[in-house]
Write a structure and sequence with these properties.
The chain is mainly β. The chain contains four helices and 19 strands.
Length: about 220
């Protein structure tokens, strides 16, 4: 399998597959394909795991694209302006925010996972249910805006605005803390909570939170 990321504003990832190689994605992720690609849809991992994916921001059913001859091509596109990030799951399992998963090799497993603390899921901006990617092979994540990669040393702390965390290695501790000071809470514009990430491990951040961006657009739409 070979892949190439195309475009900049709303990028796509194109795969060139040999016969028998296969990629899966969420429903509606494919934007073009060549002849010689077989498509099949299933509830990957069973009904329980499929329902979990639904609550974690992905489609209930996954679509498989399998090459029936060498050199077959299929491409998947991002849904908002930003970046596509390849992640080698063989090197490290990751936890990703809801909606971040785009596609992966068949050897990569995807399941919903609960945050360790209810308060983290309720207020942390990532949702109560996150996505756990494990197994082996390549996965591709969608990022709002540009991606920033940080590697945290053991015990090193990084505090992030809610919604700007894309993914982190499972060795990273994930918590939520309250913003201190009533003035900061009411006038700081950052909300009540920050996500606290503690190393060791790699963290992927995004420079834009598309939900916040959409909310600002909606607030400016004339009413009446």
């Amino acid at each position: 399998m070979r892949y190439e990321i195309l475009g900049q504003l709303v990028p796509a990832v194109q795969f060139e597959l040999n016969s028998g190689e296969s990629i899966y994605t969420q429903s509606g992720g494919m934007i073009w394909q060549s002849e010689g690609v077989k498509m099949s849809t299933n509830a990957r991992g069973g009904i329980g795991r499929s329902i979990g994916r639904l609550f974690s921001g992905e489609s209930m059913f996954m679509v498989n694209y399998t090459a029936e001859r060498d050199g077959a091509v299929v491409a998947f596109g991002s849904t908002v302006p930003g970046s596509l990030i390849p992640v080698d799951i063989t090197k490290s399992e990751i936890i990703a925010q809801k909606g971040a998963f785009l596609c992966a090799e068949q050897t990569v497993e995807l399941k919903a996972t609960f945050t360790k603390k209810f308060s983290a899921g309720l207020f942390g901006g990532e949702g109560f249910i996150l996505q756990h990617l494990f197994g082996s092979g390549m996965a591709f994540l969608e990022v709002d805006g540009d991606v920033i990669e940080r590697t945290l040393a053991p015990g090193e702390v990084l505090k992030v605005d809610s919604g700007n965390v894309v993914a982190f290695e499972t060795s990273v501790k994930y918590e939520v803390e309250t913003v201190k000071g009533l003035g900061n809470i009411f006038f700081g514009g950052e909300g009540l909570f920050l996500t606290k990430l503690t190393g060791p491990g790699k963290v992927l951040l995004q420079t834009q939170n598309f939900n916040d961006f959409a909310s600002r657009i909606i607030s400016r739409v004339p009413k009446g």
